[in-house]
Q: What sequence folds into this?
């Protein structure tokens, strides 16, 4: 028979053994969960867009800058994955000037561990993708997440380009992302439906709702974000073969013609003869 | 010199937006228009009707899997083979990835969301800020890729020989790395992003059980059905019907917003519509600020009457 003290020793040994197994698992997750989230800084949807200098500059007056809404979903899912595994790291990368730092700090407050700002004007998707790829190429990220597109230039090409630069697989638009060992299980939106896919890490994903709920930073997160590292790095040279000429606004919409609720036939005839759309 | 147009297939036929891309490719007047298509679409004869001189048809069944790596290797390989200077695609969830990868492999400048033909210096106008503005960019590289926004091109016929030739692309080991586990698709309905008429419902419809009002009207018009963000968030309707800033952006000729107040996030997704009709019981709803025609009243009374009037008029 064993004494109580010996039994206690067995118990502790056993427990330590289980714990070290967990450590190995954790280590595995840590490798798996090294995430890069690419964020854009864009005018809030309610901001009025106008241009100055003969349509060559975006007028910053009255614009509230936010994390790109799709990128915000990507970041939220990254934070959830990190929380679920209890380990791993999230780096955010942004291409832009010092004026974007409040947006980067917000990403840190939401849950990213560190941030990188490539100090350059994000002239187009080709330039941005080249910067992200140059930073990520020797860092062994398991996941590179971003929105399906930025809501300012709406190109939707950055994820595909980053994947080509890095020789990785890209999938977009991803509405659901689960981790299953060395594989990701995803729902991708296709026109008129969706498909469930699996692919091995590393992956570049363009994200969209409902992959996660947007996260509002907590007070603790905001305080903590102030001291998290934000490294500024220079841009690499990249050419897209595109050159910007000018901006313009669409013609204003005409005022709304009201039809009485008892006169639906009149609406039908207006659509037919005046608007000529049916 | 020639132009290569990618034709995307949906439910066994060439998408309307791909036909628009074909018309755009023909209007460029930069040589013969070639088309690449995978599978055997039921309306393949349309490609000839709208200007394709040669249709390169891929029969490799692996291409049923919409893998952007495989497709970009096929597309860039074919473009080089026929000496194309421009590739034209219709912008879609799938072609975003395809455009990116093809521009990288084929070493071409790419402009997406394009709404105009280029001028002689290849300045091209594209839609930005989710339809709130346009920008003009110049494409200076030798090879160019243009991804055209839906409903930006007026479709006109220009019959060509449309010779169908078999194309067997060689793809690398990187292709088909993604496994498809399952697919869920609504069939027999008009594709929302491609539709010429869209009938959308909002929270004003009070519940998913009342969606018959929307689908009945859509059926009469041959329209697609859409919804606002709260409706898809409440799971009254599937996410792929959500029209708005973070959902589907539509650019139909005619858009009906029924029981939709017109939050700015919704308006961002519909601002490229040619004509907007709003039906809402609140006369101060912001939707009337962007609508061309409006009725203030109860959707449950107006919509059935309107559906009947449309049925009689069409």
A:
């Amino acid at each position: 028979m064993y004494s109580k003290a010996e039994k206690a020793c067995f118990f502790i040994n056993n427990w330590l053994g289980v714990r070290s197994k967990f450590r190995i698992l954790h280590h595995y997750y840590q490798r798996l969960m090294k995430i890069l989230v690419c964020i854009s800084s864009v005018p809030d949807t309610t901001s009025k867009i106008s241009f100055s200098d003969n349509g060559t500059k975006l007028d910053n007056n009255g614009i509230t800058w936010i994390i790109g809404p799709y990128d915000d979903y990507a970041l939220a899912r990254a934070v959830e994955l990190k929380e679920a595994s209890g380990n791993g790291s999230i780096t955010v990368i942004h291409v832009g000037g010092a004026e974007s730092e409040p947006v980067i700090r917000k990403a840190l407050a939401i849950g990213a561990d560190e941030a990188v700002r490539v100090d350059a004007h994000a002239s187009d998707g080709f330039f941005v993708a080249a910067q992200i790829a140059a930073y990520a190429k020797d860092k062994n990220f398991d996941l590179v997440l971003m929105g399906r597109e930025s809501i300012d230039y709406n190109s939707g090409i950055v994820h595909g380009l980053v994947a080509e630069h890095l020789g990785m697989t890209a999938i977009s638009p991803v509405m659901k992302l689960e981790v299953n060992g060395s594989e990701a299980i995803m729902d991708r939106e296709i026109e008129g439906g969706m498909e469930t896919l699996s692919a091995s890490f590393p992956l570049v994903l363009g994200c969209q709702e409902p992959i996660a709920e947007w996260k509002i930073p907590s007070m603790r997160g905001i305080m903590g974000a102030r001291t998290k590292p934000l490294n500024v790095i220079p841009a690499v040279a990249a050419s897209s073969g595109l050159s910007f000429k000018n901006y313009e606004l669409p013609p204003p919409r005409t005022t709304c013609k009201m039809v009485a609720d008892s006169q639906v036939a009149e609406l039908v005839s207006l659509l037919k003869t005046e608007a000529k759309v049916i | 010199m020639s132009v290569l147009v990618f034709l995307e297939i949906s439910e066994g036929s060439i998408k309307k937006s791909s036909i628009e891309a074909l018309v755009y490719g023909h209007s460029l007047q930069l040589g013969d228009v070639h088309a690449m298509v995978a599978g055997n679409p039921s309306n393949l004869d349309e490609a000839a009707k709208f200007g394709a001189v040669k249709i390169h048809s891929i029969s490799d069944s692996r291409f049923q899997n919409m893998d952007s790596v495989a497709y970009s290797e096929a597309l860039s390989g074919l473009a080089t083979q026929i000496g194309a200077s421009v590739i034209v695609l219709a912008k879609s969830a799938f072609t975003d990835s395809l455009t990116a990868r093809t521009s990288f492999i084929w070493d071409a400048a790419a402009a997406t969301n394009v709404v105009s033909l280029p001028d002689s210096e290849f300045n091209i106008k594209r839609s930005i800020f989710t339809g709130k503005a346009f920008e003009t960019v110049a494409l200076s590289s030798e090879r160019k890729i243009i991804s055209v926004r839906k409903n930006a091109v007026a479709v006109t016929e220009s019959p060509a020989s449309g010779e169908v030739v078999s194309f067997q692309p060689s793809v690398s080991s990187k292709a088909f790395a993604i496994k498809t586990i399952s697919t869920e698709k609504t069939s027999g309905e008009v594709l929302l992003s491609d539709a010429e008429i869209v009938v959308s419902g909002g929270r004003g419809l009070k519940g998913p059980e009342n969606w018959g009002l929307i689908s009945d009207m859509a059926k009469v018009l041959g329209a697609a059905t859409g919804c606002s963000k709260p409706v898809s968030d409440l799971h009254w309707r599937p996410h792929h019907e959500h029209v708005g800033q973070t959902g589907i952006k539509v650019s139909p000729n005619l858009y009906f917003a029924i029981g939709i107040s017109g939050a700015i996030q919704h308006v961002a997704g519909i601002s490229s519509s040619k004509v907007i009709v709003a039906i809402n019981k609140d006369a101060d709803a912001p939707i009337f600020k962007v609508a061309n025609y409006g009725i203030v009243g109860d959707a449950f009374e107006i919509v059935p009457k309107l559906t009947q009037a449309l049925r009689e008029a069409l």
Observations:
- Chain A touches chain B through 81 residues (CB under 8 Å).
